[in-house]
Design brief:
Layout: E1 2-7, H1 10-26, E2 31-36, H2 38-43, E3 46-50, H3 58-64, H4 66-83, E4 87-91, H5 94-106, E5 111-114, H6 126-133, E6 136-139, H7 142-149, E7 156-157, H8 162-170, E8 183-187, H9 192-209, E9 214-219, H10 225-229, E10 238-241, H11 244-250, E11 253-257, H12 260-267, E12 272-276, H13 280-289, H14 297-302, E13 308-311, H15 317-327, H16 334-348, H17 353-368
Parallel strand pairs: 1-2, 1-4, 2-3, 4-5, 5-6, 6-7, 8-9, 8-11, 9-10, 11-12, 12-13
Helix pairs in contact: 1-17, 4-5, 5-6, 9-15
């Protein structure tokens, strides 16, 4: 079989790499090409374009880079028509991938989508794009199947792929991180726009929390060290690349930017405060369009505010320090978080998502041959 995979962000690269590994186990002679990152390439996919060239955050940045985005669409269209895969597997990255889905479908290419767009949060009309142009959708949050059912769209839920990544790490000790002193993890995001908004506040909070702890920054591979160091006083924070799970496995608490990182921290049982800040214009537009009670995945899955979320103007140094003290050892929220994390584990189920999704993709392809 010929597989074309398309991921546009670091989390998609992670989940895409595990999916490629499982597909290769099932279909050893399969051909894998596509767009992604270092992990997907390492898993055995021929890389046509790297995620570092793709991710534009916020309405303003999209407008400023519209020519590059249009060029990326044209490049992808040409590659799909030239390669003619047996299946196109789109991984998250909805702003780009939903349009690619429509193009591929209308040109007779089978489209599978792994990790649903957050249609339950905003732009619900995208449900009909899923219905009309995607042959099979694999969702990763337990409530998404019920959401789609309201629109008479049948989707597959096989669990959350982060459980596979965490389980794989726990079975291997080679990436464990040792630090002689208790440390707090900083996770300021995977895009420069996020980092410039969040990291200075996190650093200020670290200064006020004092020197009883070390501070380790789990860096996204797409962000260069020099950029991160421009925000950090010398010697204050240790930057760690390519070992996020090692950092999380030993952290006593975390300041975490909203996104996949909040769920990763929860799966490693790290008490955390969720942070999010963007440009005033982007936040204004988002408030007009987004209709969810929470921004962190743990809170959304549990449908209650387990994690404290500091959003936009609420994300101030003094407030972050106050909330961090509640989740540090001995803090008033630590036991509540531990209980909530256990409940989260039960809702998400066990590992094996990547293998189950890969098997369903391959089985369907074989049935259609």
């Amino acid at each position: 079989m010929k597989y074309f995979l398309l991921a546009g962000e670091a989390s998609g690269d992670l989940h895409g790499s595990n999916l490629v590994k499982e597909l290769k186990n099932i279909d050893p002679t399969g051909e894998f090409i596509g767009w992604g990152g270092d992990l997907m390439q390492k898993a055995g996919m021929t890389l046509l374009k790297h995620i570092s060239e793709l991710s534009f955050m916020g309405f303003t940045e999209v407008l400023l880079n519209i020519r590059t985005i249009k060029k990326n669409f044209k490049t992808c269209h040409n590659q799909l028509l030239e390669y003619r895969p047996d299946v196109l597997i789109l991984i998250d990255f909805p702003g780009f991938n939903l349009r690619i889905a429509k193009f591929a479908f209308t040109h007779g290419i089978k489209v599978h989508y792994y990790i649903s767009p957050t249609v339950w949060a905003w732009h619900r009309s995208r449900v009909y794009t899923v219905r009309d142009y995607i042959h099979k959708m694999f969702v990763i949050l337990p409530f998404e199947k019920a959401f789609y059912a309201k629109y008479n769209v049948d989707v597959e839920y096989e669990g959350h792929p982060l459980l596979d990544a965490v389980d794989s790490f726990r079975q291997s000790t080679q990436n464990n991180l040792e630090n002689p002193r208790p440390y707090i993890v900083l996770m300021p995001g995977s895009r420069k726009q996020e980092i410039s908004a969040m990291l200075p506040i996190m650093i200020e909070a670290a200064n006020k929390l004092g020197n009883d702890y070390d501070y380790l920054l789990a860096a996204a591979p797409t962000i260069d060290r020099e950029y991160l160091e421009s925000f950090i006083p010398k010697g204050k924070v240790k930057i760690v690349y390519n070992n996020t799970y090692g950092v999380l496995s030993g952290a006593i608490a975390g300041m975490v930017t909203s996104g996949t990182a909040t769920l990763e921290a929860a799966l490693f049982k790290v008490p955390q405060v969720v942070c999010y800040k963007t440009s005033p214009f982007s936040f204004y537009i988002a408030r007009m369009l987004v209709s969810v009670k929470y921004i962190s995945l743990a809170n959304l899955i549990l449908d209650r505010p387990l994690l404290k979320e500091l959003i936009q103007n609420d994300l101030k140094t003094e407030v972050l320090v106050q909330e961090m003290k509640k989740v540090l050892p001995g803090g008033e929220n630590v036991n509540t978080l531990k209980e909530g994390y256990q409940e989260l584990d039960a809702l998400l189920g066990g590992p094996g998502t990547s293998q189950r999704v890969a098997q369903k993709i391959y089985t369907e392809l074989c049935e259609k041959v």
